[in-house]
Design brief:
The protein is mainly alpha-helical. About 60% of the residues lie in helices and about 5% in strands.
Length: about 1000
């Protein structure tokens, strides 16, 4: 007996990865004795995923064929290959145990993956086929075919498991396995023909055409080691004069059935795999073999969406190659137009969800193929993207998953990073699947549930060294794949692209011009130039733009001004240049591209601001980013501006940028119906207040010297600003007040005037005007711009008019000294909430209102279309509310509010005003307010006149949520609402 030296001690076996050390030691001793090798020599190069399994396989073969195995184990190269192969596959070891004559597979140091033609010739040679017909149709031919196939499989496996880069080799291994399956089918068909000839004239057999179409992984050349081979059988006759088609189909059906049995029936040599024809028309209930015409008739009339998805992988695999190519050519147009079917995208998405739902919960965490984050997530994603974008882009019309992934990346339909992740994860998942199936040559898609199984898998794949490590790797891949699948598979752009009319997918220049005009572009030639500028060239940016443009043009056309929307999009695209996130977000986001077309084609106000703030496009990816920031957040940023900038000019520039940015955010939220009119008004008020506060801090710091810093200064909001009811384009009505607080009065007045001048200067924004309107100050435009608190008190005590008390109803502190604001509000309360209001004062208010209606309307304007001063509009509602406040707020504190609608609601609750009247006034105020903002958003200019132009009015209506071509309906609604409000106003105000 050979001596057990130190190199093969139990600890040495443990270091080599053996688990059953005593058993391994004994088996190694026996193997050495049978082959005449030393124990140490046998273990040289013994790198195996499962060394216990490898040793067991080697020993079993040595017991049966020691002379065949001994020379192989004596050679270092073949010995190493034996350990690697047997350690990865007990199934291959079983085959070589049954057929030790094929152990020679281990001897070739330069073994390579066999090619397609060579495998076909080997299978046909195994069955001794002549002109496609085996010499014998009996059991011996079937066994010979199966042995020849398994010899080829062993060669593929050996190349695979000995590769230094099995992940990189996976594409070639899958292709070789698919080609081997095709070769086996070819050999089986030769045997089937031999059987048919036994009972059928040879001329009829020769005239019978049968094409075996590979589907699924076999068709795409991405087959597993052990998998059903999905096929479709197409039959026919080569010569109607010799053989009628009906009889040819009978013969072809016999051939098809025999092929299936030859490969999957029970014999001495185990079956290879199941030949599955369930993807044929009508599934298992349909005819096994159909003519080409019958296939086409079915697909054109009855096929479901999933059947076209399955046909995506179709490839002639065996049999009549010409007929197979005819079949393929006939079904291609049907495959690549299937995505245009109604609800195609939804049906594919639902099918994937059904597959996931039917997984046994106990298996869900282990499912490599069907589970979340598994192979099916990648395959369904790639196939859906192919079918949708392949409607117009022929470069995507490929079979393989990885090939399609590369095409989708190259054409810009998915990003480089996403393609790289999907490609790498797909290869690793396939490697895991291959190693699991190769081990026992058994069909499985489940990760091992034991540490021992995981350790073997880790070593077999080379993806880790430990059970925990391979599980972490699997979990990481799974999370990564699922995240990408959800993002890409449920991309809203897919449904939109699939729904594009056929005539818009590919157009000549002349057709494009006419089509653009037909869908609403007023300048189709200009639109074509912009599209050309966006999509021209070979850059990645141009490639992605070409994939986006057909659907985005359609979305622009759905907007009010597609021409402006398109040119604004071009400018934004050019401003963002090659910024990687921009086009990736439009392509992959849940709705960002459609939202962008909506805001650009519906609002010049937004389009102009986005050109200067192009990074705002990112907000469209999240509704949360379209909501206004809180007043506190704005104030915190305003304070930070003062800290960061030492000069008033720099601070003011930052303040203007803050205001533009937040006004744009609010405008986008308004147009996309994220915000109500009340939320818009509050947001605009907060933004304006924050800008004034920030500018005031900077101006005070630069204007007031340290020795006079006791001076207090404040800005009081008035009108709609004070009422927190601003709209887009509204001025900010204000009063300026100071308190000398010990500073020389003349110096205080002079410094305060400089502060006001500095505020007005530095808040001036030519791009987005902000006018601080102080016309509501005492004495109006004839009074001083700024007064001390004492001067205000003296004026209101001695000279105050009823309209000034009315104006103070909406006074609210905005910026500056909190203490001074409190003093001013106490002063204002005494004026605006009088204990009683005289009849003469009420008459004066009514007289002024009547004069305003007659004198302040622009010359030539139709009063009914003036949103502020017209009958039943803002002015009527506000004056009604303010009269009620002047009359009753002293006794009813709930009326002490700067809000117009708040005051009306309080009056209703107090029984001062009927609910029906409040409802009509509220409706008129809201409609007028929404219209003012909508007009500004659409035109980019502030105006109080409701447009008479039907196109412009229709655009405004769209912003208010009306359907297309609703200009007349909007007109009617506005006139009806304001007419009713005017009747209420006249009854209760003038009554």
């Amino acid at each position: 007996m050979a001596r057990q030296d130190e190199s093969v001690s139990l600890s040495a076996l443990a270091r080599l990865g053996f688990a059953e050390l005593s058993t391994a030691s004994a088996e190694l001793e026996e193997l050495a004795a049978l082959t005449g090798s030393s124990r140490a020599a046998l273990l040289e190069g013994a790198g195996a995923a499962d060394p216990d399994g490898a040793l067991e396989g080697l020993l079993r073969i040595a017991r049966r064929a020691p002379r065949d195995l001994a020379p192989l184990l004596a050679d270092s190269g073949s010995r190493s290959r034996a350990w690697r192969l047997f350690g990865a596959s007990s199934g291959v070891a079983e085959f070589l145990l049954r057929h030790p004559e094929h152990l020679a597979v281990l001897a070739d140091p330069a073994i390579a993956l066999p090619d397609r033609q060579a495998m076909r010739e080997r299978m046909l040679h195994a069955v001794r086929a002549v002109d496609g017909v085996a010499v014998d149709g009996g059991t011996d031919a079937v066994i010979a075919l199966r042995v020849a196939y398994r010899r080829v499989l062993s060669e593929i496996a050996l190349v695979d498991v000995t590769s230094d880069d099995p992940v990189g080799l996976i594409d070639a291994v899958c292709a070789a396995l698919a080609d081997a399956a095709g070769a086996a089918l070819e050999g089986a068909l030769a045997i089937a023909r031999a059987r048919l000839i036994e009972s059928t004239p040879a001329t009829e057999v020769q005239a019978t055409r049968l094409a075996i179409i590979g589907m699924g992984k076999a068709g795409a050349r991405e087959l597993n080691y052990i998998s059903d081979v999905d096929v479709i059988f197409v039959g026919g006759t080569d010569d109607e004069g010799v053989l009628a088609e009906s009889r040819a189909l009978d013969h072809a059906t016999r051939l098809a059935r025999d092929v299936m049995g030859i490969l999957s029936g029970m014999e001495v040599e185990p079956p290879l795999w199941e030949v599955d024809a369930a993807l044929r028309p009508e599934g298992k209930h349909g005819a096994l073999v159909r003519s080409l015409a019958s296939h086409l008739a079915y697909y054109e009339r009855w096929a479901k969406s999933w059947e076209f998805q399955a046909l995506l992988k179709a490839r002639p695999l065996a049999g009549d190659h010409v007929l197979g190519e005819e079949y393929l050519a006939a079904v291609q147009p049907l495959i690549w137009s299937s995505a245009a079917r109604e609800d195609f995208v939804d049906s594919v998405q639902q099918m994937r969800e059904r597959v996931t739902a039917h997984i046994d919960p106990a298996d869900a965490a282990y499912q490599l193929k069907l589970g979340e984050g598994g192979l099916r997530d990648i395959e369904f994603t790639v196939q859906l993207l192919q079918l949708v974008h392949g409607l117009a882009d022929e470069s995507l019309r490929v079979r393989g998953t990885l090939e399609a992934l590369d095409a989708l990346r190259d054409r810009g339909y998915i990003g480089r990073a996403e393609a790289a992740v999907f490609g790498a994860d797909y290869r690793m998942l396939r490697l895991l699947e291959h190693r699991l199936q190769l081990r026992d040559l058994r069909r499985t898609h489940l990760m091992p549930r034991t540490d021992a199984g995981l350790r073997v898998l880790a070593r077999a794949t080379g993806l880790s060294d430990t059970a925990a490590g391979i599980w972490r790797r699997w979990e990481g891949i799974r999370r990564e794949v699922r995240e990408l699948h959800v993002r890409l598979f449920y991309r809203p752009l897919l449904s939109a692209v699939a729904a594009l009319p056929e005539e818009e997918r590919t157009l000549s220049a002349a057709q494009a011009h006419d089509r653009l005009a037909a869908i609403g572009f007023r300048d189709p030639a200009g639109a074509l130039r912009h599209i050309g500028a966006l999509t021209g060239g070979l850059s990645r940016k141009a490639v992605v733009q070409r994939s986006l443009m057909p659907i985005m043009v359609r979305w622009f056309a759905d907007g009010s001004d597609p021409d402006y929307g398109l040119i604004a999009f071009r400018r934004i695209s050019e401003r963002l240049g090659d910024t990687p996130w921009f086009l990736r977000m439009l392509r992959d986001s849940a709705g960002a591209a459609e939202r962008l077309t909506r805001v650009l084609s519906g609002s010049k106000y937004i389009g102009e601001l986005m050109e200067w703030i192009p990074e705002s496009v990112a907000w469209l990816d999240s509704e949360a980013q379209l909501r206004p920031r809180s007043a506190k957040a704005l104030d915190d940023e305003a304070r930070a501006i003062q800290t960061r900038h030492s000069t008033v000019a720099d601070a003011a520039k930052a303040v203007r940028a803050l205001r533009r940015r937040e006004l744009l955010r609010t405008a986008m939220g308004a147009v996309l119906d994220v915000l109500t009119i009340e939320e818009v008004a509050q947001a605009l008020t907060d933004i304006t207040g924050a800008a004034i506060q920030a500018a005031l801090r900077a101006v005070l710091r630069e204007t007031v010297p340290p020795e006079h810093d006791a001076l207090d200064f404040a800005v009081i909001g008035m009108g709609r600003f004070g009422g927190a009811e601003l709209g887009f384009g509204s001025d900010a009505d204000v009063l300026f007040v100071y308190d000398a607080n010990g500073v020389d009065p003349q110096v205080a007045q002079r410094l305060s005037a400089k502060v006001v001048a500095g505020l007005r200067e530095h808040l001036t924004d030519h791009r987005l005007p902000l006018e601080l309107d102080a016309d509501l100050r005492p004495e109006g435009r004839n009074g001083p711009m700024v007064r001390s608190i004492d001067a205000y008190a003296e004026y209101y005590r001695r000279w105050s008019l009823s309209w000034e008390a009315q104006a103070l109803l909406r006074a609210r502190g905005i910026a500056g000294s909190v203490k001074l604001i409190a003093r001013f509000m106490d002063l204002a309360d005494a004026i605006r909430y009088p204990e009683s209001i005289g009849l003469q004062d009420v008459r004066e208010i009514k007289r002024i209102k009547a004069r305003v209606e007659g004198e302040r309307l622009p010359q030539g304007a139709d009063p009914r279309r003036h949103l502020k001063l017209g009958p039943g509009t803002l002015s009527d509602v506000e004056w009604m509310a303010q009269l009620l406040q002047l009359q009753h707020a002293a006794a009813l504190p709930q009326l002490r509010t700067t809000s117009t609608l708040g005051a009306l609601t309080a009056a209703e609750d107090a029984g001062l005003f009927p609910a029906s009247a409040v409802s009509r006034l509220t409706a008129a105020w809201l409609m007028s307010s929404r219209l003012r903002s909508a007009i500004t958003l659409y035109t980019g200019k502030a105006t109080d006149i409701l447009p008479a132009d039907r196109r412009e009015l229709d655009a405004v209506a769209r912003l208010l949520g009306y359907p297309d071509r609703s200009a007349s309906q909007l007109d009617e609604d506005y006139l009806r609402v304001t007419r009713r409000a005017r009747r209420v106003f006249e009854k209760h105000f003038y009554g």
